[in-house]
Every structure is written in C-alpha cells, then in structure tokens.
Design a protein that fits this description.
The complex is a heterodimer of chains A (268) and B (501). Chain A is α/β, with parallel strands linked by helices. Chain A has seven helices and twelve strands. Chain A is globular, with a radius of gyration of 19 Å. Chain B is an alpha+beta fold and 501 residues long. Chain B folds into three domains: 3-99, Beta Polymerase, domain 2 (2-Layer Sandwich); 148-180, no CATH class; 188-500, Cytochrome-c3 Hydrogenase, chain B (Orthogonal Bundle). Helices cover 39% and strands 17% of the residues of chain B. In chain B, strand 3 (47-55) and strand 4 form a beta hairpin. The radius of gyration of chain B is 22 Å and the shape is globular. The chains are: A alpha/beta (268), B alpha+beta (501). At the A-B interface, helix 1, strand 6, helix 4 and helix 5 of A face helix 4, helix 5, helix 8 and helix 17 of B.
C-alpha cells in the first residue's frame, strides 16, 4: 500500500513563486483582453463591433480618432474575434489577463465622463488584509469560472498562502464571490445568501457573466449579471478569468496591490 | 427538408404519425436499438415538429424521425424511459402535452415559473424574463415516524455548481433521493437563434465550460454536415488532439475530486496539480486553458504548433500520471470506499440512457470516437475500456484507462500530423440542417442545428452527456448510505451547467 505522505514530501514544493516572481505565473501563451488603438481605425470601419458576440464594442463615427471606439471590457469574453476581424492594427491580441476594478466604469474604454454612482459597501477591507473568507455562489455559470476557482486551491496556486479561504457558510464569509449571469431561479437564492452574511460584507462579480451577463445575458431565463441584484465592490471580467487573474483581483481588493486598470487602460 | 438535404445531413429522416410512434420505438428496442434524444422545433411559426433520434445498434447509422402533431402525442417514456426527460422538456419549452406520461411535472422550468407563453413559442415576448415565485417542486411522499427530510442546496459547501438535493433518510440510510436541478437553466438553446455562425460557436463553447471544445466541435460538425463541407486533414487531427487534451484535464480533475471524497488528501492535491499541468499545456498550445476560441465551421481559426514540445511534455506527464493512478489503484482505504458503492445495474443504465464512462463501467462497449468516427478519429486506433461491475470503482478504472488511451491517441496524432491548410470554406444552404456529435469526456454529446433563410441557426438542440447521466444517477442513490453519497456523486463525474443549459 502506498505511503502518500512520503510521496507528497518527495514531490517537493509545487507552489509557484508568483506573484513575487512574475515569470512563474503559469499563464504562458494564454491570450487575454484585446488592446485597442482607435487612432489606427480605417474610416467607416466597424468590423470589430460586428464581430463581437456580446456587443462590447461600439463605433462612434463622428468622434475624434482616439475616441472612435468605445469598449466595455466587462462584456469581453476574450474570444479574439475582434482581433481577427480588424483589418488594421486597431485591435490587437495581448497576454493581459482579466483585470479587477472597484468601479464598473473602470472597465470601460472611452466611456462618457459622468461616472456611475458607487454601489458597493462603504466599509474598508483594510482589516481583512491577511484573512479573508469567501463564499462562492454559482448563479448560472457555464462552470468555466468554477473550474478556475477550484484551481485556486490546487498546489500550484495554493490560495491559502495569501490568507484567503473559501468557506462553506455565508455566516462566516466576508466576501460573496458570484459567477454566472443570475438566472431567474437563482436570483432570490443569491439575495438570501447575501443577507445571511455578517457585516461588513462585500460582493465580487467574477467573470463576464456576473459582470454584465456575458454570452447568456437576457432572454427568458437570465439577467445581466449582478447589475440591479446586489451592490458590487469588485468587478473581475474574463471568460473565465484565469486563476492568477482571480488572485490578483483579490489582492487588489485587499489593498495589497494597486488597481492596474483605470478607464479601460492599463496604468500600473 | 427534401431528400437531397436529408442525404447531405447524413441522416435518414422518416415521417411518422403520432400514433405510429409507440410501435416504432418498441420495434427499435426489440431489435437491441436505443433512442438517443427527442426535441421539438418550429418548422413553421405555427407548426411544431417533433424529432426523435436513435440507432438500431451501437455502430449503425443514426436515424431520425419527424412527427408533426395536430393533437396529443402519446408519451414514449413507458417504452423507452430515457425519453421521459426529453418529453418533459418539450412540454416546458414548447407547450406540447404527452398523453400518459408517467411523470407529468415540469423539468427544465422551475416550479413557480409562470411563462406567459411557452418560452420557445413565437408568441413569447422577446427578452422578457420569466415571471417567477419560488415554489416547492413535485417530490414523492415519504412518510414514517423516523423519516427525516433534508433539503440541501442550491448553495452548498465548497466551490460547486448550484443544485438542490432532497434526501429522505432514516439514520444513515437514504430511502429516497430527489435532485432539483435546472436552477442554472439559462435558455442557452434559444440564445443561438438568429446569431451568426461564429457567434454561435462562442455560445457553444460556453454551454459547459469544462466541455468547451467538445460542445463547439459538435456544433461545428453539425454545420459542416449541413454544408457538406470537408474539413482538411490537418485540422481534423488537431481537433482530435484538443479533444483528447480536454479529456485528460477533465479525467485528472475527476480523480483528484474522487480522492477528496475518500479523504485521500495527497491524492486530491496530486490529481488537481496534474489537471493544472494539462490546463497550462492547453494555454500554451491554444491560447486558452479551456481550449476555447479555436474552432470554426470548416476547420480551425488558426494553426497550432504542437511539435516537438507537446510530445515531450506529455511523455513526462504520462509517467507521473501512471505513477499516480497506480497508487490510487493500490490504496485500500480509497478502494474500500469505491468497491460496491453506487452500483448501476446494466439494464437501468441502458433504459435510462447512461452514457460515457458511466455506461462503459457497466458493460456497454460504446464510444462515438470509434463507432461513429468524426474529426481525425477515423484514421486513429481508439482503445475503448469496458468493465462490468458498474460500481464507483469501475467508473474510476474506466477513467484511468481512458487517460492512457488519450495519451496513446495524442501520440498517434503527433506521429501523423503533416502540413496543410487548417480550414475550408463552409457555406451551408438556406433551410438546411445537420447533426453533429462528439464523445465528450462525460459521454455522448449531440448538436442538432436547423438553419434559416439567412443560413443562421433558427433552432439548436443540445443533448449533453450530463443531462443523460443526471437522469440515471439518482437510481444508484435510493436505498444507499449517506456516507457514500459524496463518493458516489463524484464517481459519476457530472456537470450541472451541461445538464441545465
């Protein structure tokens, strides 16, 4: 009979040195959010907007060159169809994995200047920096997000090393992590789970579906993500966001790393 | 559909009157055949057409029947029990009643959903969310002084998909088990209507995330069959390569998850770590850890470059997997929990429609890759493991053998890959239709695609393997032990998104 403990010890440490060692993130070759350079758009071209399955891209023909494209990364499913459709260098592929933001508007490139009202909790998570407990609720995801969330606890990412844990009960949870577009049958269930959490409590919309509804938005059975269902404190798009992106967003939420993206552009 | 397009679809389509259906199904079953699925679509705005898919033997071509009901349709659930869920789904979504159905309750729509019209009817207001007030579902009455009733879910422990499980039990003994699924029903099939083919592929990839590639592949093959499109050889082989990588990471996840339920913690960690290694290989090869954004009707969106690194990586990984699975198979504390747990009798598996590794663990030698080859499988040798004991251990053993078989297939593919184009023009005719299939990691997956005048989908029916296996799974839980439940559930390897759609 095998001696599993010895086997485990012999295997050595499997956990990545990331984020301390950036090269070890484990996301080699994974295509991320496309980058846009509207100044390269040919006149009257709207190929990328037509190619986008979720309507994340809008073309404003009368705008100045740098504002010709309005992009909502909250809807981006990372399908790369806009990159393939672009006849110029206006939409290009990148390895920028999905980025977390505190405001929905920070996922929007060339969004009109009036910012949306902040909906999330007023409480600061500063006291939770070294210990955060998460309750996950699947509100109708395709299970792609769950696959990547489960990966967080594998030995490679080893989420516990950051002091972040998944907890079975909402009673012990600080953060409600929601995936999926919120189906009609999960809407009330989700609200009950939120109400069962002690204060202070925060909500994270994970994946394009929870942020905006994604590919499933609308129709007879789906909503448009958490919009109008729960107050959101942390938005993380992606389809699905990879495990490193999820960890990075959580660390950003805990104020352990700065927010990298503002107004749809990487600033840090 | 006329005879020409029917041939193009690779299917013989026979028209039957509703009253002819029971005898026809009975004859198929008498001859050892099996029905595969049933669905409805609006052939015209005011004419609903029922479709029934089946085959007379595991390697015989699929046949399809069509039936245009004017009044009530006889239920076939008593003759072919696996059709029971399809009929209930058709009632929910299209409003057609099946006379004499043994379980005349809603399935896909939740109790408490009050649609103003059936969601697929042209009268259903576009983008109108279902009016809904939560209500208890139909469940059998289980009474007795000692009987406890435990509803569990839909929000459950750990990172899991949403579903509610209702247990009636005495002490440790489960008397009756009723899963309330479809909390996650997103109406995905209707989201395909009117979308461009490329958008439809993106949708298919997001029906069940851990089956992204199989779903998109089945969809593309359905469109290719409608268009009589020949996919170039290199693309066919690369499709099989990705399909096997999908099987690998799913089966490794399965083993890690199963080891978790038997509290073999190092076994869990190792399984999950090996899964992660395959996902990282997926990312490096295709740009997506879930193998998305690659398929297009006609081939692949871009060429892949697996040589020579992929073979070396998988050789290394294969040795580690071999060591890991040998350890699992020789750990008594693990095996003790699996052997004789959740036995699925052969005839139940057949009648109720068990598929994939679950049915191969109870004696059925069926695998679409070998029996109805698609992608590159026609030129490859597919080893199909089969066992007969039908318990959780057999289901683990089948998965382990399939990991070996997948690695061997990838070896064959890498040895055969030659240069060449990876896509061909694929332009289906207006009003054509096609059926696509794939042996996903969890079993038989069908996409039936009907295209409209603009060559965009008007109806897409998805038969996912988890829809079939969720129908079967409860039959192994009744009259079993509470402590075995989690192990048994893990041994089936079910997804909920695929079932609920």
């Amino acid at each position: 009979m095998p001696f599993w403990t010895l086997f485990g010890l012999q295997q050595g440490k499997a956990t990545t040195g990331w984020p301390r060692r950036p090269a070890e993130a484990g996301q080699e070759g994974v295509l991320g959010m496309p980058r846009f350079a509207p100044e390269h758009c040919p006149p009257d071209c709207a190929e990328c907007a037509a190619a986008c399955p979720t309507g994340a891209i809008a073309v404003a023909k009368n705008e100045t060159a740098s504002k010709r494209l309005a992009v909502d990364y909250g809807r981006c499913i990372v399908c790369q169809l806009c990159v393939e459709a672009c006849p110029a260098e206006a939409a290009t592929a990148s390895f920028d994995w999905a980025f977390g933001t505190r405001e929905r508007d920070d996922l929007r490139l060339n969004h009109p200047a009036t910012p949306a009202a902040k909906t999330g909790s007023a409480a600061s998570p500063a006291g939770f920096r070294r210990s955060l407990h998460i309750r996950h609720v699947d509100a109708g995801s395709c299970n792609g997000c769950e696959s990547e969330l489960r990966a967080l606890n594998n030995p490679f990412y080893n989420l516990h090393r950051f002091g972040i844990f998944f907890t079975p009960s909402p009673r012990f949870a600080d953060l409600l992590l929601v995936t999926g577009p919120v189906t009609y049958a999960m809407r009330e269930v989700l609200r009950h789970t939120y109400e069962a959490m002690p204060e202070p409590r925060w909500v994270m919309a994970t994946g394009a579906c929870a942020v905006s509804g994604g590919v499933a938005a609308g129709g007879y059975a789906c909503g448009h993500g958490l919009d109008g269902v729960l107050p959101v404190d942390l938005y993380l798009p992606g389809c699905p966001p990879n495990p490193a992106a999820i960890i990075e967003a959580l660390l950003m939420f805990l104020e352990r790393t700065p927010q990298r993206v503002r107004g749809g552009r990487i600033v840090g | 559909m006329d005879a020409v397009t029917a041939r193009r679809a690779g299917l013989e389509i026979v028209s039957l009157a509703p009253e002819e259906l029971p005898a026809a199904v009975a004859e198929v079953i008498r001859g050892g055949g099996r029905m595969q699925m049933a669905y409805a679509w609006h052939a015209t705005p005011d004419q609903i057409e029922l479709r029934y898919l089946g085959s007379c033997g595991p390697r015989d071509d699929f046949f399809m029947w069509r039936c245009r009901p004017q009044a009530a349709v006889p239920s076939l659930a008593a003759i072919s029990p696996l059709l029971g869920w399809y009929e209930r789904e058709i009632t929910d979504l299209f409003g057609i009643e099946f006379a004499g159905h043994p379980e005349p309750y809603p399935l896909v729509l939740h109790p408490g959903a009050r649609p103003p019209a059936p969601p697929f009817s042209p009268d259903y207001p576009d983008e109108e969310p279902l009016p809904f007030t939560p209500a208890p579902g139909a469940a059998p009455e289980v009474t007795g002084a000692e009987v406890q009733r435990l509803p569990f879910g839909p929000v459950r422990a750990d990172v899991v998909e949403s579903a509610e499980f209702l247990f009636f039990y005495v002490g440790e003994h489960i008397i009756h088990y009723h899963p309330q699924l479809f909390f996650k029903h997103r109406g995905m099939e209707k989201r395909f209507a009117g979308r461009s083919l490329m958008h439809a592929v993106a949708l298919a990839e997001r029906v069940s995330g851990v089956g992204s590639f199989a779903h998109a592949l089945a969809f593309c093959q359905a469109v290719e069959r409608a268009a009589a499109c020949e996919v170039p050889p290199r693309a066919r082989l690369l499709r099989s390569l990705c399909a096997e990588l999908e099987r690998l990471y799913n089966h490794l996840h399965y083993l890690g998850h199963l080891a978790d339920t038997t509290t073999l913690k190092v076994g869990q960690a190792e399984g999950m770590l090996l899964e992660e290694r395959v996902k990282q290989i997926n990312g490096r090869l295709t740009g997506s850890r879930l193998l998305r954004n690659l398929l297009v009707p006609g081939g692949l969106r871009r060429d892949l470059d697996p040589q020579p690194w992929l073979g070396d990586e998988l050789d290394r990984l294969g040795r580690e997997i071999g060591r890991y699975t040998a350890m699992l198979e020789s750990t008594n504390s693990h095996l003790d929990r699996l052997i004789t747990t959740g036995i699925l009798p052969q005839e139940v598996a057949f009648d109720q429609g068990a598929t994939g590794p679950v049915q191969r663990a109870c004696g059925f030698d069926r695998d679409l890759r070998r029996d109805h080859p698609y992608a590159g499988y026609g030129e490859l040798t597919v080893r199909v493991p089969v066992l007969t004991s039908g318990d959780a251990h057999a289901r683990q053993q089948i998965r382990i053998a399939e990991i070996d078989s997948s690695l061997a297939l990838i070896g064959q593919i890498l040895g055969r890959l030659t240069g060449g184009p990876v896509s061909a023009a694929c332009a289906p005719q207006p009003h054509s239709e096609g059926l696509g299939w794939a042996e996903s990691p969890r079993g038989t997956l069908f996409y039936a695609v009907h295209l409209g005048a603009d060559c965009r989908p008007v109806r897409v029916k998805i038969k996912s393997p988890s829809f079939s296996n969720w129908r079967v799974f409860p039959l192994t839980v009744h009259d079993s032990n509470m402590m075995d439940y989690a192990i048994n559930e893990a041994s089936f390897g079910l997804t909920i998104a695929g079932c609920d759609r």
